[in-house]
Amino acid sequence: MENNYNNLQEDHEEEGIPTTIDEIFLQINEFGKFQKIFALYITYMTAATGMVSMSFMILGRKETPICMNNNNVTSSCNSNNYCDYQYEFPLKGTYSYSSSYNLYCKRSELFPLPTMSYFFGFAIGAWIGGTVSDKIGRKPVFLGSSICICICNIIMCLANDFGLFLTARFSMGFFIGSQLSGGWNLLMEVLGKNYRATIGGYVWCVWCFFVSSNQLIAYLIDTMYKEKDIAYLDIIGTDMKLYSWQFSGLIMGLPMFIGLLFGPYFVSESPRYLLLNGRVEETIKILENVALVNNRKMPLRYNLSSTNASLDTIDNKMTTAVNSSSSSSNNNNNNNNNSLSTFDLCRDTQVAICTVTITYLWFATNVAYYGMSIALSRISDDIYLSIVYLTMLQAPAYFFTGYILKLFGRRHILGFCLFQGACSCLIFAFLSSDESTDEDDVSSSPSTFMQIVAFTSMLGLTLSFSVIYIFTSELFPTTFRGLGFGVTNIGARLGGILAPYIVELQFFGKRTPSIIFGILALIGGIASLVFLPETKGCDTLETLEDMKRLYGGGEGGGKMCRWCCGGGGKSDDNVDGETYGTMYTIVEDE
Questions:
Q1: 161 contacts: CB under 8 Å, gap ≥ 6
Q2: Would 453 be classed as within a structural domain?
Q3: DSSP, res 434
Q4: Exposure string (b/e) for 425-443, b if CB count within 10 Å is 16 or more?
Q5: Domain total for the chain?
Q6: Using an 8 Å Cβ cutoff, are 143 and 42 in contact?
Q7: Chain segment 308-329, per-residue pLDDT in tens
Q8: What pTM did the predictor assign?
Q9: Residue 190 and residue 35 in contact, taking contact as beta carbons nearer than 8 Å
Q10: Is residue 473 part of a domain?
Q11: Domain ranges, residue 482
Q12: pLDDT tens digits for 397-408?
């Protein structure tokens, strides 16, 4: 059998037939019309989801009510955290859910709960959604989660009870995490290796513009309520009242609903996922469709759109080889696909190192990013403009992600960005006065120099976010990419949950939070350079054996090289070595 496979592979090479899915994409165009339309749709849906997920920045802004004592007015709670007299929000709390649900004075401790419930739901959703996408496919997880997000957004915006609101917020986080695990990996698996970094950056660049539009929507609707001098709109035929923030939230969900209508037409399943699960015929049909849309010819079949001729001899050989490869892959990696569990990520040393390191990097990046956000939280006295500035500040970093990664690779840029974030946080710590621990001082306007440092650091940390999304998808193989992406993404959400509590440690000194943020980012920068290989230019990893080969621990793998393509994969920089992809590789018996 070994000789037959070797002879068959030689025939394929002689006749120019590709042996990996990445080589097939090269022949049918790895970024042709099909991939462009596909990437455009995923980008649109990701950005539209961002409008829903980041709506809390404006819809949940904290409003200060006025405590009324006849004609005397006081603007804060007393020492017992109560308002001595009746208090009232502007226009009866129409602009923010924090005022609608009376999250003030004694109830102010409930204010962080909506954000925390969202992050907690996101972490669980990314984990479960990633696991499910490895079992049933990327497409159903992506589309199914998108539908549920729209439903949760409607429930959240119409909820009159704070408990129902929290439940909807948690559920929204759950399905957004699930959608991201399915959709992001689907995009990375459909794109050719030379376009993953560039398109990955463009996705988040568009995301910035969509999220920024939230502030325009909120401003226009808030202005309408102010001009009409109304606290709410009555929903005809019901007893429900529609506050300004609820109206804004519903409008912010419209782009996603519209995008869902076109989902079945623009989204197809990942051919890599299908083939590794033995669904060969479905894989070939999708690849044929890609070739047709890209105006290219499939290297494995005749053009069936113009003839009903059966597969030729070469195609029959390839189909047999694919089936053999799939069967062998399923046998050798049984524990890496349908039966793989979260605990299996820790059974193999290389996989465990990768999982733990990437999880921490997600955590460190999110925490450092949060630290810089605090420093820039008072960039403008206008709440709408502040959020627009903070969001659009990230766009240049996302836009140039692909170009930067082509020059310097993944791990070096990720390490540099985290080092930069660490230095900025420590600069803030040692240039800040430690005399006051008043909570109000934390968000006070920083000096011009410190704002420049914060702006520069935000660009770096934004770039690190873009890199880590791409890096995570490239480090895990197709057989459990969804699970790996979901589990490691828990680190980011954990960082989002813990960061506000780290800020509260200013009780021990105003510098304390910034020092902690800086140390965490510094450790992350070191970890990325020490424990992770470079994936620049590597073919897409398909199986656990590919991952081991990248780390230098699998059969045919050499010593782990962190300065090139993992010590061996083919790259767009002409690095000589072995191709890691195994989807169409002829498997040799030992």
A1: none
A2: yes
A3: -
A4: bbbbbeebeeeeeeeeebe
A5: 2
A6: no
A7: 323 333 344 334 334 444 444 4
A8: 0.81
A9: yes
A10: yes
A11: 337-532
A12: 899 988 899 889
